[in-house]
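To whoever is covering the structure queue this week,

Two jobs came back overnight. Logging them here so there's a record in the thread.

Job A:
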Amino acid sequence: MLPRAARQSSAVSPAQSFDSTTLTESEIRGLAARFGSPLLVVDCDQIRRQYHALKAALPGVDLHYALKPLPHAAVVACLRDEGAYFDLATTGEVELVKAQGIGPERCIHTHPIKRDSDIRDALRYGVTTFVADNPDEIKKFARYRKRAELLLRVSFRSPSAVVDLSRKFGCEAGAVLGMIEMARRLGIRVRGLSFHVGSQATEPTKYVEAIRACTNLIGEAILAGLPSLDVLDIGGGFPVSYQDAVMPIGEFCAPIRAELAKLPPHVRVIAEPGRFIAAPAAIAISSVMGKAKRDGRWWYYLDDGLYGSYSGQLFDHAKYPVTVLRDSDELHESVLAGPTCDSIDVIDDSILLPELEVGDLVVGRMMGAYTWASATDFNFFKRAKVVVMHERPVAKRIVDMPRKAAGRGRAA
């Protein structure tokens, strides 16, 4: 059920801010009636709020939005207009930002392992900064040494993160100086270092440790007579609250800010936030397409599931807050299942719900990151339609209201 405050509130007026995580029941029903289900409703105002919250928590750090969690054109355009930079990892992502008119100088290419065609496509667009983490990858840039420069990705294992990305990428800190020397012999410029402590980090200690280690490496490179390093990429991983509370972002970043202040003043600091910006900005709306009582429990079969918008439960280890649009004081242990013929397609096999009927709506929240992006059309169930709200900022909508009602959604 929706929180009572949400159920009792009136519809949001066109000029007001629109928070997709607190949509009223009437608004959700209206969207489902207008566009059908399943839907993923993306609110660009929430994208803006998250971006500026992180900007305030990390002043002086250039935020490169990582497209991977929510690579949608409206999100990219929204962040473009807010002055964001972009973190690209594939030719498809290059094409997406190019289509939104984003200058290549606002982009870096951070995939540590690339095909030659990936490098050429990014260079053709105008991106010049790439990431590498091993000698074989560095050698790929010998033919492009006059056009490309590198950041070396360093591994800092973080078992406490939900996804430990240093398990797959990054070199040992002790290998960095040798790789810089190798690049110099090949005529390739190494501009700086990068790291990623893992996705959905639970506390900032690993960032502090990694920044301190990279600060030392920057100093060691100077003492060794190597080219000066002037970029540090601190990656992403900033946490959001799904069902468990996380540290407020200002508090989380306080020790990170303190450690960054110890860097040499010539070093430019960048970050690669993805989940933090995207996750709170979307809800999933699905409907009950069938029900059955099995072993004393109601099974409700939805038109969205693990092969669709809830794919992040498998690929991203996320557990999304779920509510239903039916009021009742009598709750029963129930199962929420997806639509496909696969028995693994179960969203929750023990959730307390009122008895639902076919057509009732189920709402997943905090579903902007690693949901629609990793959804499939398995079993030929089409993935959720994306509905975008508030593509323009509130002030712009207010100005335009006499000519056109603002704050309305459109299907993408």
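Job B:
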Amino acid sequence: MKKTPIDRKVVEKKIGESGLSSLGKASIREIVKLTNQIEKDTGEKFIRMEMGVPGLLAPSIGIEAEKKALDSGVASVYPNIEGYHDLKTETSRFIKLFLDVDVDPGGCVPTVGSLMAGIASFLVVNRNDASKEGTLFIDPGFPVHKQQVKILGHEYRSFDIYDFRGAKLRDKLESCLSTGKVSSILYSNPNNPAWICLTEEELSIIGELAMKYNVVVLEDLAYFGMDFRKNYSVPGQPPFQPTVAKYCDDYILMISSSKAFSYAGQRIGMLVMSDHLFNRRYPDLLRYYTSDIFGHAMIFGAIYALTAGVTHSTQVGFAALLKSVNDGDYNFLEVVKEYGRKAEIMKKMFIRNGFRIVYDTDIDEPIADGFYFTIAYPGMGGAELLEELLCYGISAISLDITGSKRTEGLRACVSLIPREMFPVLEQRLIRFREDHKIE
């Protein structure tokens, strides 16, 4: 047995103690815990690619606004359940300036991160029609969204979009929606974990069929504008971040502060309902809520029950940050381009050492460089590759837990790897290649 940079016996021992039946099925947080334990026992620092944690400093604009708000006494006052007025107004402005879509501030509601926006959406959207069952996930996707619908007892369907890009998406999507059982569609754009970006043609297909089959679209924009192949950073000027909102009436946009705004620790996002959906009546909502008006059920039913409001000072801070972005004073995307630059370098390292990019194109052009990329190694399944990379001081997660059919692959996140660790990554990959000669 070849000696590896990380003692294989320690890796195997910790995997055994973890109780995990398969690394390929392990959640992100389980891989985090396992890697922490191996690091502790070996004293070796890992290349940590398993968790999508932002790696940039939070903007001082938001922090200073929060400090001022705390000094003014907001910590003693409950925030309005509908959201801080200025935050709702600036969110509406942001949607207009960066998506070219009009939404009333009333439908812009703060949540404790966009993950909470997801579960709140499921609580209302998947209960608006008693004849329907639940969500269609356009995969691969964030595994916790499926965990949410499972704990709510909702049914779901899913498919991997890789083989259904462009015009091919229509027939596949229609085959799912024509069952009449789908109440909502969820996808992320840019995509976590594959970093694919849906085209205007694909978004128009989703919007058109959602209208045809009376389905609400949940668009996860956690990585807003981070397809760095185009410049989406100038307020009020094209190109605008692509969105299904241009193609249907009933949608919810989930805007996260974590990645694009580097404000992850404050746990705030925005749930944005279209005006049409906000005011729409669904009699079946009365089974669970006091009103059949969608927006009322969302705010005073689901969100009230989940949090009774997002931290007051955090709302003030995020409002100040959005105002600076909207006014053109702060270019939020210029800062996070560092993720794309790091991804470009890291992808080349992996490819030089025998790996391939699993989700490699957006139909007919190379995938963008961004927060994530996907890797595979010839002759290895995802679980085997993950365990083997742990022996070389590299952690990631299996694509198997994301709904991907490319179970030989892993998702790699670039955010937590400082550039000074790049030579270490290169050395470990060279060693991996030498120890795993490709036939």
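Note for Job B: Residues 96 and 169 are 28 Å apart (CA to CA).

Please reply-all if you pick these up so we don't duplicate work.
Q.
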